[in-house]
Amino acid sequence: MTEKLIKRLTVSDIFSKKNASKIVALSCYSSQISKIVDNYADIILVGDSLGMTLYGHKNTLSVTKEMLIEHGKAVVNSTKKALIVVDLPFGSYEKSKEQAFETSSEIISQTGACAIKLEGGVEFSSTIKFLVERGIPIMGHIGLMPQRVKINGKFTAHGKSSSQKRKIIQDAKSISSAGVFSMVVEAVKENLGKLVTNSIPVPTIGIGAGRYCDGQILVSDDMLGLFDDFTPKFVKKYAFLYKEIDKAVKNYQQEVLNEKFPSKKNIYD
Which residues are catalytic? Predict the structure, then answer.
């Protein structure tokens, strides 16, 4: 019997899930994790959150294009089914539409990724339209935008005031009209997440935006309990691997110190 051919999901497949089925998405950056996640996720995001989870940076601002390209290659090469999206890093697209296209096209051509994610609302709608018209599929990102942490001072929920709510809805409608195939909605109250979802024809993927979004995304290191520096309120942990790794390393240390490892029987028999 021939093995069933596995086809990678496309942006059209994701778009068609609006009001049809929930979208499962995870951010991850390594071949080992991505290979597992690929069995279950519709979208794998190679996000700039790797600056914090993998490299120990305080925020995402120091993540470079080169870092995302190398991790993007690892994820693409180790997966077969999920749609792979790569973040545009801070400082690589804000200057002009042309800069955004240059960065996006380089990331896609070097990694083999399917799409690019870009943070921003109304102010980046023309850039998004420019990219889409030139063959770059774009996932949007509104609400809390980690690349603007220097303006906000900290990672905090958005859409608390009436003016913020109006801005978020305006952002969603604007980038939807510009051509995004989906958008991340981060750290807004559930009723606003629902309102945004019902206001636009493209799928919303929530992260701390409530159950009414068209899908959900988490950072895999958060979901697995690997990142222990802090835990956002909206994160649900499905494992506690940090503690398991700590326990394993401690056991290894004790066996080495007590001359129980390596076992002579394993080596010489």
Answer: 186
